[in-house]
Every structure is written in structure tokens, then in C-alpha cells.
Specification:
This protein is of the alpha/beta class. A five-stranded parallel sheet has the order 2-1-3-4-5, sandwiched between helices. Helix 2 links the parallel strand 1 and strand 2.
Length: 262
């Protein structure tokens, strides 16, 4: 028998998503040509979403533009971000490869001379680095929205895929899988600057419900394919969560367009 999902758990996620939208910290861009990159990241966005002037301690993330080997000033800025617990992405404009202190190699974006800033790649790395905490920035900076949504959908789909494969008791995974899907939908809403209230919650749950049938199919096949059933169940949980995420993305993108329409 499937475990039940408590309504208070859903409301807790709604409250969490609404609180996240209140985070108005900007994306801070500093270093060489910082103002140029700031303008590109701010394109079509809300005022104050990104800045090249400000305190790293009061920023959601730091993008540091480097012009070769990190200088003492670069190291000071990166150290300050590290101490403040602020995520950092570095953009290297030199063709040579240098170690960047306090920054993971996967968080360094190469910028080929003369080709302009690779804004899409910077946005993708930022989305991966920030995870769920990127949603308030995505709400204000359209350039981040698709990469953040991509990262969220992939992350939650993987989580549910692993959970679906690992839990062998029929129905025991239902509450956690569903809560993950609800959380994904709410985060996608936040990434589009949409706050979910009591009136909108039924629509959110209706979107999430599209994944239930897929899990029912998985349970049926689990008995018919005992050896590989766990793998099939995990695959269906992954695919179902991805389907929910993509449906929610389309729904909120359309809703955001409607809000922006004069």
C-alpha cells in the first residue's frame, strides 16, 4: 500500500519557495571588463539583478573576470568570497591556463580573445554552481533562466531516478518522489518570478500529477521483470520527473509572458 502524502509537507515547500523569492541579493561581477559583462548578463532583466559595484558579502554569487594569471587583487576578491561563503565563477580572458585560487576548475569559464564573453556558458556554469539557490537570480535575469531550469530539472530527475531504483517496497517511495516533484515545480515557478499562492496550488498539483501514471506503469512492470525491475522503476521515475519539469517550465514560461505583456 502506498504511503500517504501529508498536506502540511506541501505547504512547507510552498512557504520555502515564497521565502526564496524574497532574496534580492544581486549577482556581483568584478575584474577586467566587469561593466561590459554586467551589461550582457543584465540584458532584459530587472534593475539591480546584477551589478559591478558592491560588497561580495551581500551578493548571491561572484563572477570574477581574470586577464591572465590571478593578481593579488584577484586573489583578495576570491578569498573574500570564499570566506563569506559566496559561490564564485571565474572567467578567464587569457589563452594560457592558470590555477585560480578558491575556484574549482569546473567553475572557470574560458573566454577566447576577440569572441566576446561566452554568456551562455557563464550562465550554465552559474546555474550548476548555485543549484536551487539560483532561482531568485533567474527570476530577475532572463539570461540565467533556461540554464537554471535545465539544471533543476536534471538534478531532481536524477534524485528521483536513484530513489525509484533504490526503494524496493511498493509505494514506499511515493511521498518522497512526489515531494521532489512538487519542489521542482515550485522552484521552476520561482525561476520565472512567479509566486505560488493558495489559488495556484491546485494547478501546481495538477501538473505534478502527470507523473503518477508513469509510476503505476513502473510498478506493474516491476513484477513482470523481476531481475531488471529496479532499473526500469528508476528509469520511469527519472523520465516522469523530467516530464513534470518540462511541463511546468512551459506552463510558467507562458504565465510569465502573460504577466509581461502590456
Amino acid at each position: 500500500m502506498a504511503a500517504k502524502l501529508h498536506p502540511l509537507a506541501i505547504w512547507g515547500l510552498v512557504k520555502e519557495a515564497r521565502t526564496a523569492l524574497e532574496d534580492d541579493r544581486p549577482l556581483l561581477v568584478t575584474g577586467a571588463l566587469a561593466e561590459t559583462l554586467e551589461q550582457e548578463l543584465a540584458r532584459g532583466g530587472s534593475r539591480g539583478g546584477v551589478t559591478s559595484h558592491g560588497s561580495v558579502e551581500h551578493s548571491a554569487a561572484l563572477v570574477r573576470v581574470l586577464a591572465g594569471k590571478p593578481s593579488e587583487e584577484d586573489e583578495h576578491a576570491l578569498r573574500a568570497a570564499n570566506r563569506a561563503g559566496v559561490p564564485v565563477v571565474a572567467v578567464q580572458t587569457d589563452t594560457a591556463v592558470f590555477d585560480v585560487p578558491y575556484v574549482l576548475a569546473t567553475d572557470v569559464v574560458a573566454c577566447r580573445p576577440g569572441s566576446g564573453f561566452p554568456v551562455e556558458e557563464i550562465a550554465r556554469v552559474l546555474a550548476a554552481r548555485l543549484g536551487e539557490s539560483a532561482t531568485p537570480l533567474a527570476a530577475r535575469l532572463p539570461v540565467l533562466r533556461d540554464p537554471v531550469c535545465d539544471a533543476l530539472i536534471e538534478s531532481f530527475s536524477r534524485k528521483n531516478g536513484i530513489l525509484g531504483a533504490a526503494v524496493f517496497v511498493p509505494g514506499a517511495d511515493f511521498p518522497v518522489l512526489t515531494l521532489n516533484q512538487v519542489r521542482l515545480v515550485l522552484r521552476l515557478a520561482s525561476a520565472h518570478g512567479i509566486e505560488i499562492d493558495q489559488q495556484q496550488l491546485p494547478e501546481v498539483l495538477g501538473t505534478v500529477a502527470t507523473g503518477f501514471g508513469l509510476r503505476a506503469v513502473a510498478r506493474q512492470f516491476l513484477g513482470a521483470v523481476p531481475i531488471a525491475g529496479w532499473l526500469l522503476k528508476g528509469g520511469v521515475a527519472y523520465a516522469g520527473t523530467r516530464a513534470v519539469g518540462e511541463a511546468a517550465r512551459r506552463y510558467f514560461a507562458a504565465a510569465a509572458d502573460e504577466i509581461d505583456r502590456p
